[in-house]
Amino acid sequence: MQAKLADLDHRLLSGRSLDEQMDRVADVAADLGFEALVYDYSPVPLDHVGELITPAILRVRNTPQDWQDLWCAEGYYQIDPVQHLALTSISPFVWSYQPKGDTILQRFIDSRHAPVVGYLQDAQLACGVTVPIHLPRGGFATLTGLRPQTSRRDLDEAREHLADFSLVAHALQEAAYPLLDKECSPQVIRLTRRERECLRWAAEGLTAAQIAEQLNRSLATISLHLTSAMHKLGARNRVQAVARAVHYRLLED
Fold first, then answer.
1. pTM for the predicted model, two decimal places
2. Pairing mode, if any, of strands 36-42 and 127-134?
3. CATH 3.30.43.10 fits 1-183, yes or no
């Protein structure tokens, strides 16, 4: 396995896109007994009220065709107990949706998670391994391998491959990291350079008139930039816009 992982590192780094890298990881994951693969990434995992944000990047391999739509458009990501556990975990973990699965998930599942539980049981992907990856500056990613569970042995085999799958996940993340910004979905909030500049000065306590003087622009122009940023952030006023921009790391260089 070590030789295969060394070869994977080389192949991942030569991948021109995240999709190419996922294809290569899927081959290795299949050798470990995982039939399907899910990778997700968010520069900020929680919104300003503490709810899970739909990931900026979601890539799947060998999942049912409706997976992407359910998790990203229908809200399954927000009620996925594996994702909630991953966000608060620093170590990879094995999970099972079977009642006698005997994993950490059995102590966590309740009625809120019923759509996800039923879906994965029907899809015969009720067992898996998830690797949480907490990134610099607050970013968050997970790689999950899924497989059927027809007996206790299936769960035991997932545990046996936990360490190798974790190495695969971190190899993927290291190779993918430089690609993430350009791979992010268009739904991610994007401020213009001037909007960020105006909000930075607002964060320093300057009024619109003072920002206009600082940037040598008209008050109307500065107000336009600030108002545009407020709308993009769903903020009611400039103070809230600054707070949300800071939360979403939009004012960082």
1. 0.86
2. unpaired
3. no
